Request: fold
Amino acid sequence: MTTETPSKPIPEPDDASAPFWEGSLEGKLRLMRCTACGIARLPAREHCDACLSTEYEWFDASGGGSIRTFGVMHQKYHPGFYDELPYTVAIVELDEGPRLPTNIVGLAGKKAEVGMRVIVDWERHDDVALPKFRPA
Ligand SMILES: [Zn+2]
Reply:
């Protein structure tokens, strides 16, 4: 990494999301699950959208999912991403239900497709690791 390359914007964990980001550093995709109705949710929030319960637990998701939708970015929007153009932005539907905005990496010449099976692939930074996905 050169000092001339502007860095990417990186998420800053807060109290609600801290367990998610702690899990990321261990390579675990950690989600909240409502203990009243069982629905998994992401991002972290205090109540369940399905039943409004405030009871929940954290659990480690499988890391698997499928591409719900995607786009390939060719435009230079942020200097931190110039070296990665073109890159794929996607919504991945996790096997546990929640949909996660992310990038598809490791395509190695393949084209992303809606419905493509993917698996989490962590991009490590100093204090967090970002959940990206590659073909399964
Ligand atoms: Zn619920």
